[in-house]
Design goal:
Elements lengths: L4 E5 L7 H13 L3 E4 L4 H4 L9 H12 L3 E5 L7 H6 L26 H18 L5 E5 L11 H15 L2 H8 L33 H27 L7 E2 L1 E2 L8 H5 L6 E3 L8 H13 L6 E5 L18 H11 L2 E6 L26 H16 L12 E4 L2 H8 L10 H14 L4 E4 L10 E4 L9 H10 L3 E5 L21 H4 L1 E8 L8 E3 L2 E3 L1 E10 L3 E6 L8 E8 L2 E6 L1 E3 L1 H12 L14 E7 L5 E7 L5 E2 L5 E3 L9 E2 L4 E6 L1
Parallel strand pairs: 1-2, 1-9, 2-3, 3-4, 4-5, 6-7, 7-8, 8-9, 10-11, 10-12, 12-13, 13-20
Antiparallel strand pairs: 14-17, 15-16, 15-18, 17-21, 18-19, 19-20, 22-23, 23-27, 24-26, 25-27
Length: about 650
């Protein structure tokens, strides 16, 4: 056993005589795992009453005979043309109310009975045909679920979802605050999906009734989850044990992955960062994916070996970066390293997307040589990190409901973006070398010494009590501006801001000032000053100690950052959007009393992460994301890849993996 290595392979797109050459190159690159059949619905079901598995049979047989492990997809990532022609209702209606015709992908209405029945049936037939094949190590349902539909079928589905959630119109009207603007509903049929034709103005984030839009976001995520569960159940009817997954997209707003997590046997995701300068952002996404299954390892299902092809500009991964980012995934919990794509397609929108094997089929390209070298390293690593977990004493809370509610709110500021706030706090922890979990707000918090909850806009259930318990037993809790504002229905608490968090934080906020992104009001912390922007809450201590103050405007000298003693611990409140250096300074002060600052935090651009294997072996990963060689202190252990003593310096884009003594 070893970390699966390979990726998406689509041999149905080129002549069969090319396949032998592919496998020769797979051998050279140490590729042992292939994801096949992701977009084969049109091949396996060419018409309503006809199934043809001949091509998929040959693909699977070739992989099996070639000694490859297989991640077999159900092929339902895009529906076939005949389905849309025979049943136009399977295509989506968009936010502006336009019925789409056949084309693209992600164009299937999740509420369509015909779509659900036929997608489930093709998954069932594939599972019945190939279940029991020892080469199949995982099932892959759909592909990158996302988007939304506003058709009449979804309107009916939404009403059913609301009946189950609220039971009565009285409860729905109360939750949605419908006495505002004469919106009281007296019949379920009066409820419409919130769209450009109903509640919205100026786009999807501008809505007259945030509660309605919030519930529709929840419903649409659940509707697509129902599609996944349909297909998984069909697979389980033939194969009761092989794990089933689907590929998530990391920091993706439309789907609440926490609501999906329990239904996946393992999490997997596709890493396509927005640029090539964001290692901390990728670390956040990896940590989020690991946190979906309570810290269990995930699969890196897709990444490009070189370039993407879906953006206006597509930077090439510099020499060594593919290796660096692949090991970063492993450092944060990946138990598989896979690519899209194994061979470049000849046509359509992804023909210029990076591939292990280019159109010419050469093995002497830089990209292929780097892929082969990484494959050799993964073979040298062997099974030692499989199943390893991260020993975290710090949790960063991540909440899709807060994300949605904050960004559809009419105030205080539409310039505040949830991910910007979260990534700033995660990057501070990442920079300081902290091993951390990115956890849902429902996660148990008893094992953490520090809990960081940036932009915790919505407070649900007993969350405030559980955060208070962290501080009461001696831990530290950090939250920020725009936290504790609304309940699960997006209605404001009839109490001082920050709502249920106020007793823990020891503050109240009566006023807040929102400005454009050119306005700066610096915050003074001890002898240093840090820029702050966007939102400035006028924090009034109610027992909390003032740690930082505003330096400008009429509220100069008033509290911006506070620390409240609560039980044996502390609660920190940051009332404004500090810059990265400011946030890092605050987080450093939070971590220091708990002795949680990383041992290598002083090294510029060096990322560290620890994994602990099931047998107790500890592995330290060091990754140099910077432009210069970095000198390392002595590390007691063995370089896992060379079995020699650890190096004393780390070159740019280089990686060191040490089994600690």
């Amino acid at each position: 056993m070893k970390i699966p290595y390979g990726g998406d392979y689509n041999p149905e797109q080129w002549p069969a005589e090319v396949w032998d050459e592919d496998y020769r190159l797979f051998d050279a690159a140490h590729v042992d795992t292939l994801t096949v059949g992701v977009f084969t619905w049109g091949l396996t079901q060419p018409s309503h009453d006809e199934y043809d598995f001949s091509v998929l049979d040959r693909i699977i047989a070739k992989a099996e005979h070639g000694g490859r492990r297989i991640c077999l997809a159900t092929g339902t990532g895009a529906h076939p043309a005949w389905l849309a022609a025979e049943h136009p209702e399977v295509t989506r209606v968009d936010f502006e109310g336009r019925r789409h015709r056949f084309g693209q992908r992600h164009n299937s209405c999740p509420s369509s009975p015909v779509y659900r029945r036929l997608s489930t049936e093709v998954a069932r037939r594939i599972a019945q045909r190939y279940a029991g094949n020892p080469a199949i190590i995982a099932w892959h349902v759909g592909n990158e679920y996302g988007g939304a539909c506003y058709c009449p079928l979804c309107a009916d589905g939404f009403r059913d979802w609301l009946r189950e959630r609220y039971s009565s119109l009285e409860r729905l009207n109360e939750a949605w605050y419908t006495r505002f603007w004469s919106h009281t509903f007296t019949d379920w049929a009066q409820v419409e999906p919130p769209s450009a034709l109903t509640e919205h103005w100026r786009g999807p984030d501008h809505t007259a009734f945030q509660s309605i839009t919030l519930d529709y976001l929840r419903f649409m995520s659940d509707a697509m989850l129902a599609n996944f569960r349909d297909e998984k159940a069909a697979i389980r009817s033939a194969d009761p044990s092989t794990p089933v997954t689907t590929n998530f997209m990391g920091l993706y707003r439309p789907i609440d992955y926490h609501r999906w997590a329990e239904h996946l046997d393992f999490a997997s995701w596709d890493n396509y960062p927005p640029d090539d300068q964001s290692p901390a952002r990728m670390a956040l996404a990896h940590d989020l994916m690991r946190g979906l299954k309570d810290g269990a390892p995930f699969w890196l299902m897709e990444q490009t070996p070189s370039v993407t092809a879906c953006r206006d500009v597509n930077p090439l991964k510099r020499p060594g970066v593919m290796r660096l980012w692949s090991w970063q995934a492993v450092a944060h919990g990946a138990d598989a390293v896979l690519f899209f794509q194994m061979r470049a397609g000849r046509g359509a929108s992804e023909k210029y997307h990076g591939a292990v094997i280019g159109h010419s089929g050469r093995s002497d390209t830089r990209v292929f040589r780097e892929v082969a070298a990484l494959g050799a390293e993964l073979e040298a690593l062997g099974p030692v990190t499989l199943g390893a977990r991260t020993p975290a004493k710090v949790a960063l809370l991540f909440d899709w409901d807060s994300w949605w509610a904050l960004e559809i709110s009419d105030g205080p500021s539409r310039l505040v973006r949830y991910l910007d706030v979260v990534t700033t706090y995660h990057k501070a922890l990442w920079t300081l070398g902290v091993d951390l979990d990115v956890a849902p707000v429902t996660a148990p918090l008893t094992d953490y010494d520090v809990v960081v909850a940036p932009a915790l806009h919505m407070i649900k259930g007993d969350l405030a009590d559980r955060l208070s318990a962290v501080a009461a037993r001696g831990g530290s809790v950090v939250t920020t501006f725009l936290s504790g504002r609304v309940d699960e229905n997006d209605n404001a608490f009839l109490t001082d801001v920050p709502g249920p968090l106020a007793p823990l934080m020891g503050v109240r906020v009566d006023e807040w000032d929102a400005r454009d992104n050119l306005y700066v009001n610096p915050v003074s912390i001890n002898s240093s000053t840090y820029p702050a922007q966007l939102v400035f809450e006028l924090v009034i201590p109610q027992g909390a100690e003032v740690i930082g103050t505003y330096t400008g405007d009429f509220y100069a000298g008033t509290a911006a950052i506070t620390r409240n003693t609560y039980g044996k611990g502390h609660a920190w409140y940051v009332g404004t959007a500090l810059d990265q250096a400011g946030v890092t300074s605050v987080i450093r002060s939070v971590l220091a009393p708990h002795d949680l600052l990383g041992s290598f935090a002083a090294l510029p651009d060096v990322e560290t992460a620890t994994r602990v294997a099931p047998d107790g072996s500890r592995f330290l990963f060091l990754l140099n994301h910077g432009p210069s060689t970095v000198d390392l202190p002595a590390i007691n252990g063995v370089n896992v890849l060379t079995r020699a003593a650890p190096a004393t310096a780390l070159d740019p884009n280089d990686v060191l993996i040490v089994e600690l003594s």
